[in-house]
Design a protein that fits this description.
Shape of chain B: elongated
Largest sheet of chain A: none
Low-confidence stretches of chain A: 95-105
Helix content of chain B: 55-70%
Distance between the termini of chain A: 54 Å
Structural class of chain A: mainly alpha
Largest interface: A-B, 90 and 133 residues
Strand content of chain A: under 5%
Radius of gyration of chain B: 28 Å
Oligomer: heterodimer
Shape of chain A: flat
Low-confidence stretches of chain B: 125-145, 302-309
């Protein structure tokens, strides 16, 4: 398995990465971003698959099955919902509406 | 097949890179769409690679569960309305927490099962010196890989605890936002009970982690953890839910990272930890925007102390009709529209955008000003406006727009209340005192679209409605916006 201190370094660096990525996100993207990060921890599906792959007794298999079910829901639901939200974000500029040049900012 | 494990590890590595790059691209509206697609490819890659791991059993069960889970979530995710987005995020997040807890449970139960093989109940000492243990040990050899080291055990238990709390807590958050659980559930001594529940869960967790694991203890542990998540979330009011969902999102990330360590899966560690950190920051940002500390949200109760001595406001609300309001804005130079969740509830965002487009055609400079906590989740209002087709460069944040209000001719407040209430600045007795607000009152004229004379979501009187420069346009958001559109059209005839 993974060496303890090596894991600690991974934990630390990943935490900084997460913090830095989000620090520069504009407020308008907070909801899609929360949903997007929600999708990313859908990787739990992989873990649930491994756990179900290890399961031997019917009891373990039942819990593992529920775990994979939930993990798959997390990943798929998170993706669909985030993609739907981000699809809608459009700028007025490239669309080239005749009146879009009038706004300030 | 010695290259297969390496290939699988490489896939996990690539997935982790795609997750980080994807999240990075999501930090700008222009590249955000691509970001989620990249992260999606990463997920697909990681899931496919997992099927080829060695020593995997129950492949049929795995495929069945994945197919059912994916299609159910896909189906609901495609159909849910944008206004219901916060509770859907809560629901999917809770599922992730539940999955993490399930991983912990399977690993712990498997650990106990292997322990029993190493130390059969009848034979306390299984040292190789005792002949009776030879036979059993020889019969059921337990590979070292199937037992857990103390660190793995501790993190596994911790991840299971956090995941279970996130699971039951998120489900309560979902039920509350969905309107299934209207009332807050409060009783005397609640905090002590919750603390006791947590202490009991942690105590059993410590027992589990220090090799006192047994099946009844594991069951008790999960029951207590789930109950704690339930009890912790029940007393929190609907207005605070965004902070809670964001917090549980970070929780699930942490749980995933810890369980990833137990399984020796680097992609889970990295993705989980990135989300854990990002979610923590996001939670802080949200709590700050609402002027609440995270501790206050979790353990305080909104409006319990205040409210008794609510300041009475002198003056009267001055009504205006749609025709006058339309004329006022048609001949203004700068108009700022301040939408609130009430606008989305009335499904008025499309009409409001139609009205704004008509104004823009007349040469009026129009902007939308959005409070960080407008809607039911930070940024939720932006999503709702985007759905109606409002370009994101017409939308301004609170910090950008506040200094501009003195130069604004008309501020149109539609469906917003507490986020424009000056009492948040002036009345220390107000429950929302200290919350940053949009300084709408500084505009030359304010038009407030409101259904009636009642108070807002938090039940607080709004001093803005009584200000000298404020006029009330009574009516349902959708109807009022429709009237404004019609009045504006007749102006041109």
């Amino acid at each position: 398995m993974i060496d303890g201190f090596l894991a600690l370094y991974i934990f630390m660096l990943a935490a900084f990465t997460g913090y830095e990525i989000i620090a520069r996100v504009p407020v308008i993207l907070h909801t899609p971003l929360m949903s997007g990060s929600n999708f990313v921890h859908g990787i739990v599906l992989v873990g649930a698959m491994i756990a179900l792959g290890h399961a031997q007794t019917p009891f373990e298999m039942t819990i593992g099955f529920v775990g994979v079910l939930l993990g798959a829901g997390n990943a798929a639901g998170g993706y669909v919902v985030t993609e739907r939200m981000l699809e809608m974000f459009k700028s007025s500029k490239p669309v080239g509406k005749p009146n879009s040049g009038k706004e300030s900012r | 097949m010695s290259w297969l494990p390496t290939l699988i590890k490489a896939c996990y590595f690539l997935a982790a890179v795609l997750f980080i790059l994807g999240l990075k691209r999501m930090s700008s509206p222009r590249t955000a769409r691509g970001g989620i697609v990249w992260a999606g490819y990463g997920m697909l890659l990681a899931v496919l690679a997992t099927f080829f791991l060695p020593d995997m059993h129950n492949r049929g069960l795995i495929i069945a569960a994945v197919l059912i889970g994916v299609s159910a979530a896909w189906w609901t995710g495609r159909r849910v309305a944008m206004t219901a987005m916060p509770q859907m995020v809560a629901l999917y997040n809770g599922m992730g927490g539940g999955a993490a807890a399930a991983i912990g449970a399977v690993e712990l139960i498997g650990y106990v099962r292997n322990l029993a093989l190493l130390h059969p109940p009848g034979i306390p000492d299984t040292s190789p010196l005792r002949p009776e243990s030879w036979a059993i040990n020889a019969l059921q050899p337990v590979p070292a890989a199937l037992t857990l080291s103390p660190v793995e055990l501790t993190l596994g238990v911790l991840g299971a605890l956090i995941g279970a709390v996130s699971f039951s807590g998120s489900l309560i958050a979902f039920a509350k936002l969905q309107g299934w659980l209207d009332k807050r559930f409060v009783f005397p001594g609640q905090r002590a009970v919750n603390l006791l529940l947590l202490a009991a869960a942690v105590l059993i967790g410590i027992l589990l982690a220090t090799s006192h694991a047994s099946l009844p203890l594991i069951v008790a542990f999960f029951v207590l953890a789930l109950l704690f998540g339930l009890m912790m979330t029940l007393p929190i009011g609907g207005a605070d839910m965004p902070v809670v969902i964001s917090l549980y999102n970070a929780f699930t990330g942490l749980a995933v990272a810890f369980e990833g360590f137990v399984l020796g899966n680097e992609a889970m560690i990295i993705a989980g930890m990135v989300v854990g950190a990002a979610g923590t920051l996001l939670t802080q940002l949200m709590a700050k925007a609402m002027n609440r500390s995270i501790g206050n949200v979790l353990f305080g109760s909104f409006g319990a102390a205040a409210g008794a001595e609510a300041q009475s406001i002198d003056g009267a609300q001055k009504p205006i009709d749609a025709a006058d309001a339309a004329v006022m804005m048609a001949y203004a130079e700068r108009v700022v529209i301040v939408p609130g969740y009430g606008m989305a509830v009335a499904q008025a965002q499309h009409k409001v955008w139609e009205f704004a487009k008509l104004l823009i055609e007349r040469g009026v400079k129009v902007k939308f000003a959005i409070h960080p906590v407008a809607g039911r989740m930070p940024g939720h209002m932006n999503v709702l406006l985007a759905e109606a087709g409002v370009p994101y460069d017409l939308i301004a944040d609170m910090d950008d727009i506040n200094p501009e209000f003195p130069n604004v001719d008309v501020a149109l407040v539609i469906g917003a209340n507490d986020v424009v209430n000056p009492l948040a600045k002036t009345d220390p007795a107000s429950p929302i005192y200290g919350m940053p607000i949009l300084d709408v009152g500084n505009a030359k004229h304010v038009i407030v679209v409101k259904r009636g004379k009642g108070t807002g979501f938090a039940g607080i009187e709004n001093a803005l409605f009584y200000a000298d420069n404020a006029r009330m346009l009574y009516g349902d958001g959708q109807a009022a916006a429709g009237q404004l559109v019609n009045e504006l059209k007749t102006l041109d005839d």
